[in-house]
Design goal:
Length: 118
Amino acid sequence: MTIERPFYKIYLSYRWKGEERSGLPSHPQYELGQRQLSGSSSLFSFVSFEPIAKLKEWANRLCYFKIGVSWGGFESLITVNAMEAEKGDRKPSVVRLYVGLENPKDLIADLDRAWGEV
């Protein structure tokens, strides 16, 4: 990824520590969450400027995450979709992760391993 610490690592690290919900007082950004969020879940997205072909290859190499969309399932899922270009030639993509019931350490390792392969 083009960011130093991908958002998924931050989210899944908090989940692994039992602090997965910004709505819980134990979360380090609880106060911020109370001001800015109306709720929380295990579904989140991030924007990437990596080539969409590379992102899709990354997603295809994942073992724990399956490609697809769902609401309320137990398995971890991922989708990669193109967005409209903003200015210039930069074409963003949105990566959507639905985190299931698997061990967060395993999910982080899976995401990192697959990224290292592309």
